[in-house]
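Tokens for Carbonic anhydrase. Go.
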Amino acid sequence: MFLKYSFTIMGLFVSTILWAGADWDYNNSRDWANTNQKYQACAGVNQSPIDIRDTVSAHLPPLKLNYHTTAKSVQNTGHTMQIDFNKGASLELDGQNFYLEQFHVHSPSENNINGQSYPMELHLVHASEQGELAVIALMFQQGLENEKLNHIWSVLPTKLGESNQLYSKNNADSYLPQRLDYYRFNGSLTTPPCTEGVRWVVLKEIQQASSDQIGAFTQLMGHPNNRPIQSIGARLILE
């Protein structure tokens, strides 16, 4: 039995919900490319996550977001907690619309900023009608309780494959900070099949979550769920 969230990107079938007995986990993350021939992209040259440093000033345009929709459910995928959204929210990037599908959580953070790791990172995953992906990432440091996360954290499913409905009207825009300055780079999915061509937007404003909130997530996962930092190579990181 398994649950899966799937779509097509650049001709590849992608699932972000995996099942018990999946052929990858975070213990063998450095060997994903050899685990399955479908994961050969994990050895690519434009992989995520990265350490964001040595950025190039590019006068990036303000993000164009239409986030007037609500979260509908939270699922325990075994690799993360995934929050699915009702249709309607979108991000305009490079003159193209990307539609918000879900967000999920990593602890500790996957991306670093100038060598610094954070206790938690949230990925808002968007897909265009052509199947291309864009991810907005938010970093969380330990601090005050995050009221925006409270409703979801109160119903986090404890069992693999379990899904709980979210009845509170949590608008997607409530998870965003007031300041939307960001870093921009090209990368990949951070889990197999590690498909490249993903547009990454990492917000500069660091959010806060309490030690109890961070601890509740890590306890449910039972293990770190972050992929190691990948080489930047010849890529430019814009800000």
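The helical segments are 32-35, 147-153, 211-221.
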